[in-house]
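Q: I'm writing up a methods section and want to include an example of the input and output format. Could you take the sequence below and give the corresponding predicted structure tokens, formatted cleanly so I can copy it straight into the document?
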Amino acid sequence: MSDEVYLIGEDNFSRVNRDYVALDTNEGQHIALALTASAIPFDGKVSDEHITFAYDADYKEEVDEILKKATSEEYADFRRELNENYRGEKCMHFLPAAAEILHMTEGTLRSRPLDVQYIVCRRYADYCICDSYTLRRELEKALLLKTD
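A: Here is the clean output for your methods example:
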């Protein structure tokens, strides 16, 4: 990105039940993607170092979880790990974490065909910043090879 300010989300939810967030962070783009993937109604602006948005307050827990992940030092470390291990076969590194989210043992997940394991690990890497419900839902869809 550049010094530009980008509009994010859509203003298609009630003005009565809104919460507002303003953060100085370089993870604004990832936050916006997580909100979109989690189907949280929101509207705002993002730049390289700042994000401001309004969201439907009914989704407060999910938004808080996403913001906690995105602003934590653990997430920064995870992003570095993700950049190193996301490409090709290396994404299988995330298999234990994906199995934990799916509430299954690593061995059970490893008993699935290799291409299914790979798809689950890729999906984990793609949705890791999302709230827990969205992450689990997407991993379950990957496990069942659903594409909707």
